[in-house]
Design brief:
The structure holds 2 protein chains of 2 kinds. Chain A is α/β, with parallel strands linked by helices. Helix content of chain A is about 35%, strand content about 25%. The interface between A and B is medium-sized, with 33 and 18 residues.
Chain lengths: ~525, ~350
């Protein structure tokens, strides 16, 4: 019997950037296949292709073949995917809060019965008549209850979805996919991210039950212990390639993590330091830091940063690595003890941490880091102006105005130093490329003259050439200006190329601090927590 | 050759048009056409143009009042009547004591600024609770304040016989003449005349000075903080700027300018209009700012200046010309169509 889903030699380019390089993936009926990989490994692109998402076709389509039960199909729209029997349990709930559980499950597949109006209209136009038929709530409720029973959720089918707990919503989504009689393949895209532990266990149980009924299941998750619990087969993606395929029985968490991370270290000769770095002098001492950052919660991180070092923070998405810098910079609410140069640093106070010469470059460059419609020069200078009163000229006591000439001179110097490709310092930042926007952010931070700099995802959305340059700038800030730098990045290879030590965050805590040349298996284990 | 012409056309013409904005070009063309028609009908152009200048000075500050709110991310301040009500209270107090001339104007402006500031803080406090819906809420706050003030005008303890109803002895009249010497005080200061054409120098200077002060304010630390918070609240937060405080300041400044503006307006008009008169005060001001090239998120002093000039000239010239061309009074209709059409146009495309 051919596999129920077979994707072969799938390749995809986005604007000249190859994100999938000939991936093979197959799912048998009744099998649970887990798809794992770091952020940017190509998982979402692969799923977008499977669902015929418009974004794939708007960017030039893909190459390779998709077969359903041995039949080659061209999936060019989500509707086509559904027709082929592919169901998707979404990460974000695609449910209508004001509708009942039954209505949500049967939405757009309602069962109907004829009524006088539909009969009359139907005589003239059958399709219009069909649309005017009454909803057959009795049969719909029966179907919905059967689907809910299959996923093991006990809930009143008349309840409106809006008031239900998050975990229930996830199961209603599954019930909806199950209710479609043709569903042969179900894709679970990180369904457990919002579930409590017991709910997650039940989800895994449901997946097993569905597989026993002959449905092929494709499970995408970052939680490797869940993978171990249910997977019949594990497919590991890295950099758009399928690097390994393991049977569930022969895998271990450490092995999977090691494969996900991979050794792709490029040995770089970093310039030597003219000063020494040791545990005796700490720039930052973080104890039991808790940060309520949605999607990246930190639940009690303890970490020390040596003065003058470049420290990396790595870890899987959703495990809290981004939360640490955001918490210390005061962007998201945090609590705990943070000592800067031995003195307590106020949390939840962005101005306070800036005043203590801690600067932060957000991972959300366009959302937090920049004023997109303002000029390069204002973006570079505004934070320093607000926090330190730079670029102000006092005309009268109490009246200080922007020193436009001084700011422009400074901006020009920064543009030259960082090689920002722009028309001039007055150009709005919105029109710059990602890499140049990042350079403006770095210029902004350098203008603040911090002694401790947090940089999150410095090379996200930056093209390859600019990536290297940005990393070089960070190294030169560290070596020449003795700036202590904490780099948070999803790309472990990048951290390994510039950092002195790398802290791996898992489940909101620092699980290990490793040397950049430590073994892959150690990184893998640390990331799994 | 043809390609070169096309390339030039694209580069120079289309580029320029995009920069200036089609609505602004259309309105400018319309104003020029009206001037031509007026000339053709042998109307007194000098008189019409002088009248436009007066109206520019009279209404300009109310347009300027919108600027801090736009910069602060509050959108177009349809709650201008809040400031106008505060300004009218400030204006009536010196009039109650029969103060005249420049003394009345100065005292009224100082009191108006004070009341406007306080009312603006309250208004800003409210707007901070309805983030994202400032324009809608502002419109209704404006309407409510005008209605609430109707009761105030009836009950307020004003006793000067020149202000209250002659019969009954209680409640302010709907339209009050300004005290002697205060009426047209600014218009007549350093007035320049060439025949029929006269320039209300004082009034225009006052408007320009306020424009300059607002422009300077937005180059100070506090002003730049308002700009940053208005454009990107998250950026502001990361800079240690309190978004709520910046918005409060923006609302207070906007309201204060509206209060100061209505004093100048009344003084130049010669009458103080109470009760329902301030109900629609925000709409022509908003239309003027939008015609000038401002939008819901961005506006500058130059937008205020250009917009006021275009919009007020349009109104002054359209009225007599329309009456001349079409028998019957359609000018009021045209004015409402232009003003509200402009607002509608900007709102449909001006979101972030």
């Amino acid at each position: 019997m051919p596999p129920i889903l077979e994707m072969s030699a799938i390749a995809k380019e986005y604007y000249g950037n190859r994100v999938l390089k000939g991936v093979d993936l197959s799912v048998d009926a009744g099998e649970i296949v887990c798809l794992v990989g770091e952020n940017g490994a190509g998982k979402s692109t692969l799923m977008n292709i499977l669902f015929g998402m418009p974004v794939v076709h708007a960017t030039g389509g893909f190459s390779g073949a998709v077969k359903i039960a041995g039949q080659r199909v061209a999936i060019d729209s989500p509707f086509k995917a559904m027709e082929c029997g592919i169901g998707m349990v979404h990460q974000e709930f695609m449910l209508l809060p004001g509708f009942t559980v039954t209505e949500n499950i049967k939405l757009n597949r309602e069962l109907t019965s004829s009524n006088p109006l539909s009969s009359v209209v139907g005589a003239l136009s059958p399709s219009a008549g069909k649309r005017l038929e009454s909803l057959d709530f009795d049969s719909m409720t029966r179907d919905a209850r059967a689907a809910l029973a299959r996923v093991g959720l006990e809930v009143e089918s008349e309840a409106t979805v809006g008031g239900l707990p998050v975990g229930h919503k996830q199961f209603i989504e599954i019930a909806r996919e199950v209710d479609r009689h043709k569903a042969r393949i179900l894709v679970f895209d990180e369904p457990s991210a919002v579930l409590t532990e017991s709910e997650a266990d039940r989800l895994l149980e449901t997946m097993r039950a569905l597989a026993r009924d002959g449905i092929g299941i494709l499970f995408i998750t970052h939680r490797l212990d869940e993978v171990m619990a249910v997977a019949d087969r594990i497919v590991v993606l890295r950099d758009g390639e399928r690097v390994a395929q393991l049977a569930g029985s022969e895998a271990s968490v450490g092995r999977i993590a090691e494969l996900m991370v991979g050794r792709k270290i490029e040995k770089r000769d970093l310039p030597p330091r003219s000063f020494s770095v040791s545990d005796a002098e700490l720039a930052l001492d973080i104890r039991d830091l808790v940060v309520d950052m949605p999607g990246e919660p930190v639940t009690g991180a303890t970490l020390s940063v040596r003065r003058g070092e470049i420290l990396g923070i790595g870890g899987l998405a959703g495990y809290g690595k981004l939360g640490i810098a955001n918490g210390i910079a005061g962007i998201y609410p945090g609590r705990g003890t943070v000592l800067k140069d031995g003195l307590p640093l106020p949390l939840n106070d962005p101005a306070g941490s800036l005043a203590r010469r801690v600067a932060f470059l957000s991972e959300d460059r366009r959302g937090v880091g920049l004023l997109l419609d303002e000029s390069i020069e204002l973006n570079i200078g505004l934070t320093s102006l607000q926090v330190q009163g730079k670029f102000l000229r006092t005309w009268l006591p109490g009246l200080s105005l922007l020193d436009a000439a001084g700011l422009r001179a400074h901006a020009r110097e920064m543009i030259r130093w960082l090689d920002v490709r722009c028309v001039g310092p007055e150009q709005p930042v919105r029109r710059l490329s990602g890499g140049n926007q990042q350079k403006v952010c770095i210029a902004k931070a350098v203008t603040l003259d911090p002694d401790l700099l947090f940089v999150s995802e410095p090379t996200r959305g930056v093209d390859v050439g600019a990536k290297q340059r940005i990393l070089d700038e960070l190294v030169s800030l560290n070596r020449d200006r003795r700036m202590t730098i904490v780099v948070t990045s999803s790309e472990l290879a990048e951290l390994r190329s510039v950092c002195d030590r790398i802290a791996i965050v898992a489940r909101g805590k620092v699980s290990r601090v490793l040397a950049p040349d430590a073994a892959d298996v150690d990184f893998g284990l640390a990331m799994a927590g | 050759m043809r390609e070169r012409v096309l390339a030039l056309y694209e580069k120079w013409f289309l580029g320029r048009v995009a920069e200036i904005g089609i609505p602004r070009l259309l309105i400018t063309a319309f104003v020029l056409t009206l001037l031509g028609v007026a000339y053709f009908y042998g109307m007194n152009l000098s008189f019409l143009l002088s009248d436009s200048l007066v109206r520019v000075g009279r209404n300009g500050i109310l347009v300027l009042a919108l600027l801090p709110a736009v910069q602060g991310g509050l959108g177009l301040n349809f709650g201008l009547p809040v400031g106008v009500a505060a300004g009218l209270v400030g204006l009536l107090i010196p009039m109650e004591f029969d103060l005249g001339g420049w003394k009345c104007f100065v005292v009224a402006t100082v009191l108006a600024a004070l009341f406007g500031w306080l009312a603006g803080l309250a208004y800003g406090w409210l707007l901070n609770r309805v983030k994202g819906q400032e324009m809608m809420v502002g419109t209704y706050v404006g309407f409510s304040v005008v209605s609430g003030m109707c009761i105030f005008w009836l009950l307020a303890p004003f006793h000067n016989r020149k202000l209250i109803w002659p019969i009954g002895g209680q409640g302010l009249r709907t339209t009050l003449p300004c005290t002697s010497g205060m009426s047209r005080f600014l218009d007549d200061a350093w007035r320049v005349k060439f025949g029929d054409f006269s320039i209300p120098t004082g009034l225009l200077l006052y408007f320009l000075v306020l424009c300059g002060l607002v422009a300077l304010f937005f180059r100070t630390r506090a002003g730049l903080a308002i700009r940053a918070a208005g454009e990107n609240p998250l950026y502001a937060k990361a800079c240690g700027i309190s978004e709520d405080r910046s918005r409060l300041l923006a609302a207070a400044l906007s309201t204060m300018l509206a209060a100061v503006g209505i004093v100048a307006f009344s003084s130049s008009y010669g009458f103080v209009q109470l009760y329902l008169a301030p109900l629609m005060v925000a709409f022509p001001a908003v239309a003027a700012l939008l015609i000038g090239g401002g939008s819901v998120n961005r506006a500058s002093v130059s937008h205020v200046l250009i917009g006021t000039l275009l919009f007020q000239t349009l109104l002054t010239i359209a009225l007599p010309v329309a009456n001349k061309v079409v028998s019957g009074d359609i000018s009021e209709v045209a004015r409402v169509v232009v003003a509200n059409g402009m607002i509608l146009y900007a709102l449909t495309r001006g979101s972030r």
